[in-house]
Give the backbone structure.
Amino acid sequence: MLKLFGNPYSTCTRKVLMTLAETSQPYEFTVVDLGKGEHKQPENMKHQPFGRVPAIDDDGFEMFESRAIARYLNEKGANKLTPGDAKTRAKIEQWISVETSEFSQNAMKFVYEYVMKRPQEPAVLEAAGKAIEKVCSVMEETLTKTPFLAGNEFSLADVCYMPYFEYGMTTPAKEIFAKFPHVMKWWETVSTRPTWQKVVGKA
Ligand SMILES: N[C@@H](CCC(=O)N[C@@H](CS)C(=O)NCC(=O)O)C(=O)O
């Protein structure tokens, strides 16, 4: 049985949980308590050598890095989150790359400040806000044409943004998101999926 080591509140773990839910795969979840520093203990570092979460052990096949894990699990699952042809899959990769390089690190500044109460310099938040706004403006352009980031179907690209939107919506980043009506409509659509509601403990 697939073993997942992570934390249900962790953004990176949530990408994996959502992938598992959407692709209908059973797993055994070992909760790593970040508050107690368990992620830095040898037990977790055996699975995740950087002392973070998540990691998996799939019948002896061990790996870490949330996006890589999500891609691997998607390969194995039913109802794959990589629909369509080569062009659609290339767009999925494009959007995951934007999330990794432009979006999540900036969205996390708001999460640190307002959710985790780890004070950020005002200039840091301002720069993060501008970066988020830029990404949302590019998303908006795409989402005026198609309901999901990579086209007409929900995909791994959407999954990768969801954990950051979920927390971001509880912070002033929400006001940035709200400038973009198609982004807001997309968020309403993806966040009300029963799978996501379960992942975030709302169902
Ligand atoms: N690139 C890694 C990042 C993992 C990561 O930063 N996880 C966070 C939780 S979302 C964590 O473990 N933070 C604790 C720490 O870095 O000490 C991935 O995608 O899995």
Observations:
- The mean pLDDT is 97.
- The CA atoms of residues 102 and 134 lie 9 Å apart.
- The chain is about 55% helix and 10% strand.
